[in-house]
Amino acid sequence: MEKQKLRILQVHNAYQIPGGEDVVVANEKKLLEMYGNEVITYSRNNTEINEMNAVQKLLIPFSAVYSFKTYREVKKIIRENHIDVVHVHNTLMMVSPSVFYAAFDCKVPVVQTLHNFRMLCPAGSYFRGDRICEECSEKGLQCSLKYGCYRNSKAQTFVSAAILKIHRMLGTYRKVNFICLTEFNKEKLSKLNKGAKKIIDMDKVYIKPNFTFQETAPEEPHTELDYFLFVGRVEALKGIDVVVKAFEKLPDQRLIVAGDGPMMDEMKTYIREHHIQNIEFAGYLNKTQVQEKYRGARAVIMASQCYEAFAMTIAEAYSNAVPVIAGNVGNLAKMVEDNKTGIKFVYDSPDDLADKIRTYNQMDIGKMKQNAKAFYEKRLRPEDNYRILEDIYHKIIGNK
């Protein structure tokens, strides 16, 4: 029997620099509306900070913990639109966890998708300096203050840590339903309950991966797959230096880097000083341009130096029948089936990446392209994702 269509309030706080979360939120709204649901959006943006006066900026640490503006506005939307479920994505910094209290007071179930690891790590990435770091999970949030983990700022890290600490103490998170993108992420989240006090209710934690809409393939597909492709921000977190140093050892293999970021100048200087001729920095590409690059790639290289909450690049590669060469770490290791949809390497080793690329070139790439597409068809299609999300909504509505 077809389930009742719902009125969903989608809540999202955009960062000052747009990122993958914004794409996921937009995709999910489009998907819900495709199936006849009504989606009302409440969005705020951290660029609001730029318009504030000095006094307002001083109050940010307090409003980030609890925003009366968000509370009033969300409560009004819920009541006027007879909202069935509130779906929260990001709350940092302007929305704040006050959105949960607006839902609680209106007796409407609320669920948050966890797009990163910020429930356990104020930086959200489990990454510090040049390595994976889980000190805040193991020793407490005060570790982040010592290092200034969030945006290399002790002041901003204090705010991020304070939000977590205060709402853990208040029991806010025990009342919220959560969506984790993978089993790996759910297992990490469960570490919040290691003490005597239960921070979250694991019975209210669900798993739903991200998805990607499959783009229409061109009439004339590429027949020569003559390059490897890196898609992402040009920064240490994404392992761009690992990839560049690997291709330095492979002068006969071509690499295209699609993306921009803080290490762009450093990497361009590196390849110039080392006389590297086989790496092309294409810069930022729009969606159509990136799709074109996917279709001509032998494989996509994923060298993230962190766990990655969910690797959208892998989902996009698979939707285009492109295998992936990925670091054997975190969720990357879970999304790549070794010698089937791609091949895995020691995530922080340029030498091993170079070796694995040589190995990959001896494999049946045609068969691996078929496997990559099959992975997408089995796990990452939007229609299947909708059924999972629909079931979650109706379950939490029934449990309210």
TrEMBL record:
Top EC class, one word: transferase
One Pfam family assigned to this protein is Glyco_transf_4
State which Enzyme Commission number(s) the record gives.
Answer: 2.4.1.11
InterPro entries membership:
Glyco_trans_1, Glyco_trans_4-like_N, Glycosyltransferase_grp1
**What is a single molecular function from GO for this protein?**
alpha-1,4-glucan glucosyltransferase (UDP-glucose donor) activity
Identify the residues that the record assigns to the Glycosyl transferase family domain, covering every copy: 223-364
Q: Which residues form the Glycosyltransferase subfamily 4-like N-terminal domain?
A: 19-118
Keywords assigned: Glycosyltransferase, Transferase
Q: What is this protein called?
A: Glycogen synthase
Which species is the source of this protein?
A: Roseburia inulinivorans
